[in-house]
Amino acid sequence: MKNRVIAYLLVIAMLIPLSACSTSKPEVSLPPLDTPKPRPSDQSFTIQPGTIQNNVLYEETLVNGLHIQVFPDGELLLEGGDVEENLKYHNIFKDYVPEIKTLHFGDGVKKIGDKCFQGWEKLTNIIIGNDVQEIGYSAFSDCKAVTDVSFGNNVKTVGDYAFTGCRALKDAVLSESVEYVGDYAFSKCTALQNARFGTNVSYMGRQIFDGCTMFTDFKTGSNIPAQAFEGNKTIVSLFLGDTVESIGERAFSGCNVLRTITWSQSLKEIGNYAFFGCKGLNMLNIDRCGELAIGDSAFESCAEITTVMLGEGIYRIGARCFADCKKMDKIIFPRSLKIVGDYILANTSVLRVLATRGSYQEWGNAVDAKDENNNRYNTNHVLSDRGLNATMTYDYK
Length: 397
What we know:
Elements lengths: L1 H21 L17 H5 L1 E2 L10 E4 L5 E4 L4 E5 L22 E4 L5 E2 L12 E4 L5 E2 L12 E3 L6 E2 L12 E3 L6 E2 L12 E4 L5 E2 L12 E4 L16 E4 L5 E2 L12 E3 L6 E2 L12 E4 L5 E3 L12 E4 L3 E4 L12 E4 L5 E2 L12 E4 L3 H8 L24 E2 L4
Parallel strand pairs: 4-5, 5-7, 6-8, 7-9, 8-10, 10-12, 11-13, 12-14, 13-15, 15-16, 16-18, 17-19, 19-21, 20-22, 21-23, 22-24, 23-25, 24-26, 26-27
Antiparallel strand pairs: 1-2, 2-3, 3-4
């Protein structure tokens, strides 16, 4: 019995190590992790990292389809969708903004939104593609280094303050497609010297070139609205293309250094006070015109004018049109006159040659005519009631 117990104990002693060797910890089964949700910014665009080798430093596509590419030479190319935000503060792209010098709008960009590139201080060149139709409010304001802007062939609207404060911009040559130029669009462009507008501009805002201290020459084929350049202190030369039909009231009033005007042969109306106080004008020769009405006080107080030649086709001269032109010594009226306002030559005491190409009767018919309100002019006051020494010469050759 004792031997049997000892045998059992020996067997148990042998089994214990084997049991310890075969025993292992049970595997723990963890629940699967949830698929991470993309961040809102990841949903709005896809990033395709660029490399120097493929000539793209940075590339991404926004949710509206706008495709962004940055190139090693500092060019930013935008294609495929409208620009709706100021990219200066956009995502990691903002790190590239200080190095961007050229901004190129390619295919698919129809609108450049309000303030979208406001304050991009290193930007020097802007190339606006042919798909762009609208440039928004203050879109490029305070881009202080911009020297050149190339407008595409389909831009229709240049918004208020669009290029205000672009201090290095020298020329503003708009494409023929432009119809609307907003208030102060090129104001405070202190290096701007020349501007050219096409034939289709139906609206020019207020003080478009306000504060442009070097601005001297303006060429346009579009009608000029009231007060468009009132008080401008720098414009020297005005060229009106042959599609210009009207100049609004006070359009150039107070432009003290305006010296030369090339007139449109299609001009039909010069508004009241249009050139009032333009002290730089010396000679006024409006000989390229058809039927033209000149408004009240249109050239009043143009103190340096000495000679006025009015071409055939001018049928109305408004009241006080040449009053206080104190250096005027010669004026020739056309035979086409039908309406002559009161006191058109008041305070022109040095006038020496006063003549009309029409006969005595034709002049009499003009000064006896009724105005637009059916009021008869007072013929005693037509030329002046004081200080006029010259005698009218009729049938002047």
